[in-house]
Automatic annotation (TrEMBL):
PROSITE patterns: CYTOCHROME_P450 (PS00086). Pfam families: p450. This is Cytochrome P450. PANTHER family: CYTOCHROME P450, CYTOCHROME P450 12A4, MITOCHONDRIAL-RELATED.
Amino acid sequence: MWKIIGTAIAFLVAATIFSTYLAAKRRADKFKKDNPGLQVYTLLVPLFSPLRIFHLLPKWLPWLIYDMSDKQMAKGFTTEKGTDALAICDSDVSYFLLRDPALCHDIMVNRYKEIVKPVHTYVLIDIYGSNIVTTEGATWRRHRKIAGPVFGERNNALVHEASLRIANEMFAAWPTDQTALIDISEEMMQFALYVIASAGFGKDFAWTDKEGDIPAGHTLSFKTTMKTVIENLMNYVMFPDWSLSKLARTSRKEFGQYMDEMIEEAIADGDSLSPNILQALTKAAFAENESSKLTKEEIRANGFIMIVAGHETTANTLAYAFALLALHPDIQDTLYQHCIEVLGGRDPEYADFSKLTYSLAVMNETLRLYPQVIAIPKYSADQTVVIGKHVLPPKTEIHIEVTAIHKNPDIWGPDVDEFKPERFLSTDEARQNAVKIGWIPFSEGPRACVGKKFSQVEFVVVLTMVIMRYRVGVPEGVSREHLLESASLFTLKPKHNVKLVFSRR
């Protein structure tokens, strides 16, 4: 009996895979016909199948199980010299992958109304409602009009102040030994979380405070709910509510409740509160007329997306940066000397941000090598679009391949894999123009990340302060490959926690 059932199941699985492959092949053949000369790959298993998402496909399977890793992408783009585009078709969707920097720049800057964001793929992160990231058209413009200006100089100064205070508290908690092994991945996750809590929500946590106070009407502290919501983001996206832990369910509910309370407080008496970004967003939203202001629910949703966009991305980038500096002591020495020249040994002030050019160059070069978003998705929607010489049918998913552009030797030279912050300090006009279209970790154009300066200020402050106090090294027996091995789902991150040796200067 069980043998018959097993055979039947195996037959159904094989039949399903075969039928999906035939559908994918028909789609690929049509794409090839419309675009002669374009490399078109056919997928046996759909790109967003759970088998791929959870890495359940054996690595020995043949090329029909196309691997979307950075290495495979680079291989696909260099199969023929000058190849700047390729297509991948599965049974449901055609994907057009582009690394031509000029065409990508044009899409992001000039054609954003025609080649849109595939918001249907972003509904999964609408955990608290629609927001600036998950909307398009007139709705997005309403969000952008209000949320964009909130990330201005006044609030960026708040980010600097929070980063400075939290960094000093972090140092006070580090081992007092002359040399110590520190898990910088964990430290930067906590650092970035505390900066967002302070500058974003006006909630200041002591570095050693494990839980935080629980106010009336709540069963969990704000800190616990925010941390738990971040840690469970993938679970919220992938699994039904009933299958989640009680802590995850309660945290999602109470974090929304906390944000609602802060929004009501800002509406009632915002001028008497310590300034923060959620407060500024609320005041800006309610200053608009009735037809264009954001609702309380939309303010809450944008408060949540601020965490999603700004926490792990910054923490990961800092972990990569410290690993790269540990591997390149000469560059670390150059950074240290630059910081001393600018600051003379004191902590940075906000006015120093524009002077700390080498610190920012380290960030830029880190993001060139390890962009947090490895591809920027776009969509042809309900119309046929022409990109360069390629004709794309309606409902084509268009991926601007950030990693491939950042590793394009035509832009960056033959040493694209080397860590060289000086690339971003050149005064040569041709080099500056190349960087302008060839460096896109925050996207470009109207849909570029509104929190770019927030992240830059936070990064420059903590990097500068750490390097002025410590020399960073690689632990004995740890290889470069292990230190920088990466994994990607929503963001690119080190596969292993980055643990480095910190020696007091």
